[in-house]
Prior knowledge:
By secondary structure, the protein is an alpha/beta fold. The chain has two domains: 24-209, P-loop containing nucleotide triphosphate hydrolases (Rossmann fold, 3-Layer(aba) Sandwich); 227-338, K homology (KH) domain (GMP Synthetase, Chain A, domain 3, 2-Layer Sandwich). 34% of the residues lie in helices and 20% in strands. It has helices at residues 48-56, 99-112, 130-143, 170-183, 200-209, 228-243, 248-251, 264-268, 287-291, 296-313, 333-338, and strands spanning 34-41, 75-79, 83-89, 117-123, 144-146, 152-154, 158-163, 188-191, 253-260, 273-281, 317-325. The strands form three sheets. Strands 2-3-1-4-7-8 form a six-stranded mixed sheet, with helices on both faces. Strands 9-10-11 form a three-stranded mixed sheet. Helix 6 (228-243) runs antiparallel to helix 10. It is globular. The model is unreliable at 1-21 (pLDDT under 50). Magnesium ion is lined by residues 48-49, 63, 69-70, 89. Magnesium ion binds next to helix 1.
Amino acid sequence: MTTSxxxxxxxxxxxxxxxxxxRSPIPSTPAGYRSGFVAVVGRPNVxxxxxxxxxxxxxxxxxxxxxxxxxxxxxxxxxxxxxxLVLVDTPGIHRPRTLLGQRLNDVVDESLADVDEVAFxxxxxxxxxxxxxxxxxxxxxxxxRKTKDGGFVWRIPLIAIVTKIDELSRQHLIARLLEIQSFAxxxxxxxxxxxxxxxxxxxxxxxxxxMPEGPLMYPADQLTEERPEExxxxxxxxxxxxxxxxxxxxxxxVVVDIVERPDAEDAAHGxxxxxxxSVYVERDSQKPIVIGHKAERLVRVKRRLRTPxxxxxxxxxxxxxxxxxxxxxxxxxxxxxxxGF
Length: 341
Ligand SMILES: Nc1nc2c(ncn2[C@@H]2O[C@H](COP(=O)(O)OP(=O)(O)OP(=O)(O)O)[C@@H](O)[C@H]2O)c(=O)[nH]1
Ligand SMILES: [Mg+2]
């Protein structure tokens, strides 16, 4: 076990901040500026969070190889000299099996209200399936108007983004693009590989081109709309997702209980902020797995998160992880409420 160098960030560089506490003022908006909200929707695991992170240029949303990673409508903010896009990450749309799944679907419905544009993600390496047809019909209900001849017109632009194009050959990609073109009357279709950063700029430009004119809503250096507590909770959950295998990740819920900053004088004497985090599992038997042999998993997660947590808090911080059991929280409405779902 390596416990050395777990000293919670002694490098002052680590506190250099892009997301730290103080925000710049919002400057006046240039003429012709475009701005608005983009809902990013699609089946679980199609690459929504990965694409948003690639567009924003930093990790605002956690991504993992497991379906149903995203549980909250995280908003990533992309600001360019021409436009500001607020990218609303959504949980993958699926048929719910648990109360948690049902609430995740409600999150999607809420995040669809009031957007200016929809990005519908379809993976290049899979055929269009019933999940995609269900999403399309929900989008029609929310965003389409019936025409006299029985067809539909979209009230807002619907952009198809074909993800994971690194997974297949050019020839197969062309066939997939044609299939997607006949699937729905998309405003535009853009292929991308977020993983290889292939065509990211094109995705950005297409999303901007279809945005209405509007003012800057956030300072140019703000990358997410989450409170620091929420961002840290997601980072902690993401670190455990990476570190754990199999079913356990679905049982995890993370809440930041408090971020305690020292006053100016104590901070000047080198006192760190304290970040108290509760990590909930569903059963007693899961607790030792999350903690790890001789607490090595906790140590590993803390070490991995030291720099990002320091950045978010805006100063050197001690991350305290407390693993607790909240029996069957995924199907208990009161517990779901308390955990913020
Ligand atoms: N090959 C390849 N894999 C990708 C690409 N984009 C995302 N992935 C992988 O696909 C998996 C799912 O990515 P996420 O971004 O978490 O997907 P999501 O749509 O947000 O998933 P949910 O939140 O569960 O709905 C991860 O293992 C990613 O690394 C890509 O461009 N190419
Ligand atoms: Mg996601």
